[in-house]
Amino acid sequence: xxxxxxxxxxxxxxxxxxxxxxxxxxxxxxxxxxxxxxxxxxxxxxxxxxxxxxxxxxxxxxxxxxxxxxxxxxxxxxxxxxxxxxxxxxxxxxxxxxxxxxxxxxxxxxxxxxxxxxxxxxxxxxxxxxxxxxxxxxxxxxxxxxxxxxxxxxxxxxxxxxxxxxxxxxxxxxxxxxxxxxxxxxxxxxxxxxxxxxxxxxxxxxxxxxxxxxxxxxxxxxxxxxxxxxxxxxxxxxxxxxxxxxxxxxxxxxxxxxxxxxxxxxxxxxxxxxxxxxxxxxxxxxxxxxxxxxxxxxxxxxxxxx
Length: 306
Fold this sequence. Notes:
Number of helices: 7
């Protein structure tokens, strides 16, 4: 219960809301995302149209007329002759084949395209239309940029006002954000304390762990261990114990001290050293005991049976 209480404490919604900078209790959304998007689209279109209101095409056409006027006789003009340079003065005549500027004739074939637009009606109309098209495209591009900027600003205002938050590039409700945060926190805590909590729960219900598996006490297998009897030779007197009937088994009796090997001589290989003395013979009243095949080791002061 201790670990589970700790996990609940670490996933406290009030603390998580504080970490996310949200009010607690977390407010619910006051408007659906679909309704907010509709409001944003309507407001953006209205504001952009107000900014670009008016007969834009008519305005641009008038601007083209002022920028590219068709020259009339008596106007001060500038004719660009691609062979002889710039000729300035009053326009005395505008002939289909040439222009007369202060008595100097310039063939229209030698005029640059920009100059031709001031003296030829067809060329003048083409350059005006080109100007209008370019300006309209520039205004459209500008309108698109303004729409994006305005939509971004208005979206932030409306979504925040209706209790939404930004998460992974999308607007979601504050309550959804809280659920995501709690789920994420629980996942990390379970990864850290999961096994310990499992052991805590099983232990509270009296389960035990055996070979890595939790089982009920009544499922624990009972192992029948048979204790072998040890026969004592009739002529073998007791060698120890706490009473006349208690005998210390041979494997519990103190062993005689081991005979140390003689120190090797210097510069003598081990195979040239003298053999170690033979071990002392076994006394008749202390026969060697065979190893117990079951590996059973009786406790101290164990009572033998004949």
